[in-house]
Description:
The protein is an alpha/beta fold. The protein has helices spanning about 10-20, 35-40, 60-65, 85-90, 105-120, 155-165, 175-180, 190-205; strands spanning about 1-5, 25-30, 45-50, 75-80, 95-100, 130, 135, 140-145, 150, 210-215, 220. It folds into two domains: about 1-120, 3-Layer(aba) Sandwich (Rossmann fold), CATH 3.40.50; about 130-220, Orthogonal Bundle (Arc Repressor Mutant, subunit A), CATH 1.10.10. It is globular, with a radius of gyration of 18 Å.
Amino acid sequence: MNILLIEDDQTLKQNICEALKAEALQVTSLYDGLLAERILKRETFDCVIMDINLPGKNGFELCKAFREYNSHTPVLMLTAFGELDDKVQGFSCGADDYLTKPFYMRELTLRIKVLIKRKSMIKNTGNTMKAGDITIHLNTKKVTRNGQEIILTPREYQILVQLLQHKGEILSKAVLVKEIWGNAFDANTNTIEVYINFLRNKIDKPFGKNSIKTKIGFGYYLDIE
């Protein structure tokens, strides 16, 4: 597995490289956002780790530009800040996961492996999933409602798939976190709430619908005929 690391702190970059190589992962490391942008257009990676505060082009800009032509490669963002606004912005730019410095290298490697595993589990079956006027084309990851395509990030897509697979059933936050992020992610974070809000703004709001509902104290469910 080939990992691209974009981090301008030389000491941290070296420590991460050593930790990933110890897990038998191949690592390409860069320190500049503009250089990383050129490399990402030219080469293929199994996972991308990027700091937010990068010279040339910051992580938010880099991730957003990357998602314009690559929606499937997992992106893990690193930052020295733990503010919710930073997480929201990172997720809205297309990041799949978020890790706040300082962190344990073991946690980083676990999250990377979960991201790569989740990517490999999505099979190109050529099938579709439908619930009312919502259709998911599993082979192309294309989502439509009333025939209109809806552009989702990989995490938004995965949550929607879970909701459709369990249509009408209440899925707790803990279950969604485990199914999508695995056991390496803290189920007590508000990450799911952030993504549910993103989904509602794309799946429901433009169509005047209220399909993704909350059962307070229990979880989320899809209510659609």
